Give the backbone structure.
Amino acid sequence: MAGSGTAHLRDRDDIVLRVEDLTVEFPAGRGRKVHAVSGVSFDVARGETLGIVGESGCGKSTTGKAIMRLVPVAGGTVTFDGKDITSLSSSEMRRLRPDLQMIFQDPVSSINPRRRIGDVVAEPLDIWGRREEADAVVDRVLDDVGLDPAVARTKRRHEFSGGQCQRICIARALVLDPDVIICDEPVSALDVSVQAQILNLLEDMKERYGLTLVFIAHDLAVVKNVSDRVAVMYLGKICEIASPDELYHRPSHPYTAALLSAIPLPDPTVVPDTVALPGDLPSPLDPPSGCRFRTRCPRAADRCTTEEPTVREIAPDHFVACHFPLVGEQAPPSGATPVEVGSRT
Amino acid sequence: MARRIIAAADGAHADHALLEVEDLRTHFLTPAGRVRAVDGVSFELARGRTLGIVGESGSGKTVLARSIMGLLPRSNVQRTGAIRYSGNDISDYSQAEMRSVWGPEMAMVFQDPMTSLNPVMRIGTQITESLRYHLDMSKAEANELAVSLLRSVGIPEPDKRLRDYPHQLSGGMRQRVVIAIALACGPKLLFADEPTTALDVTVQAQILNLLDTQQRERFMAMVLVTHDLGVIAGRAHDIAVMYAGRIVEKASARTLFSSMRMPYTEALLESIPKLEHRSHTRLASIPGRPPDLINPPAGCKFAPRCRYVQPRCLEEEPPLTPGVDEGHVYRCFYPVGTEAGREALARNLAEGRVPVADEVETGVVVGGPAPGADLDEGSW
């Protein structure tokens, strides 16, 4: 996989968020570094939903947090509304945050248990000196996310279910009328039936508030459902970017294909795929040379060890970072054997 | 350690299923009232078969598994009904007696591999603990078996891993260790309680394949508990759908998916996002929330959220009705895919009284510890 490169960035006027060559590293002691995100680029146009999908540890959440500047950025640029925000001071960043909001994975733990829901949702307005209108705005937003403001305002989080807590978190993100919301695994802590409610709600809110979304998840079926464009990540790099339907019908990165085949289908006549991806994610402390996916890739060849693939277009608006994509002009390498995988834990 | 169970290895109990559960009820006595977490569940399970139990959070599926295993809290619990394990009624066993059942007879794989392993004990010690206790093995014998167990669950370099602590392994590897511990004493019945919910899709596929192989090789009976119909579709022989502490539909996997009768099963299946749908397809979510288990609604428990609901459903609880295929039962007066169901749905659509997804939660706030007491009336 996985490569760097910016071939997939679009040159359009309506790009709200543009991430170029983003690198995030965490010190791991003894001079070692966790390479969480290594040279990721993507852009999001106004009104679009970009899905970011990958296994745990692939750097998708870190990417989301880096855009919000919640983790230090080691390199690259994040351009929001034409401004590079990686160099902003914290007070400048603070002024920008009303336009750039985030919804977190665990709705229950991201609400203060001691505060009333009305206050939780009103706090952003409070901070921005809009206390007078707070009541009216909070009522409207709570109503929009499907909660009865009269009942919900005075309660605390333990009186709500997980799905309702996520509605509250969405309300809190919406209350300042942001341009972009970064949703970090917003439904992975929820049941399937509730998940469907929340996904429908996000689509409604996107339309009503004119939002642009970055939707991070590990479930390809969920991401496909909500996104206009999907980026597949592996170990801090981008593998493939395409429209969700294209990605599903013609996955060209071996990793995307493996992710797709791992999704359990609710159909007993389909025999579960036994060629699931072997092994675990390699350690981000010491990522493999060349293509980072090569240790688990069924098509890996010598070239993958030495040369890192860069993102290139193999079909209109379909970009992949692989030397031997499943779709396209390149035939699979002859005699290539999968590299034996050991656990690197 | 009084009664030892001799399982039906030689076919002496060929008439019995390995596990028979009859009218099992587990009620928790809380200050707010009696929570009917499991309320009258019966099923049978033979060796070599996998039973999938599906339902939303709070449907009682985990409590059911724990009730059978005897892993309930000591106080404020009332469990009634019969649990027969290879012909012996184990429902009145004490904790001490159950100890001879856990391990060699029944074992459980828990949901969260991060918390179900002891963080300060080496992997090896955690596996050999039960071997030494139940099978009276020497340390060397136990270690040897532990290595082969780890190898059989697909852990590379098993002899080195024995000396590792859980934090040194990834989530998927830890779940493999949990499975190895459960399999250590060669149980005949394995419970897997949401074994993959905490894991990634790719790792989930590995773990499910592993459970599948082990179940077949060891000819175990397996109960696979999950909230995801996709997870068990291809893995379970039979599927029981639970709602509000009861089995609302049970059938072989093929029958369940090809001719489901229970509106709840249909709704669960429809709420899964499908890959073959175009993006931005609106999902069919189930409106509202599962009922309050302290004061469950009279009549059908699913009625307040059901598209097919008729006045009769609100007054009278449907009994388990046999379907066309053998072993297929469901609780519904107006089943999906029948004339009665189609008429009921058409009537509801004509009169505009179908609970509408998304709008329904307006005005719905759960009161205190009793979830969702008043909520579902509003949607109707």
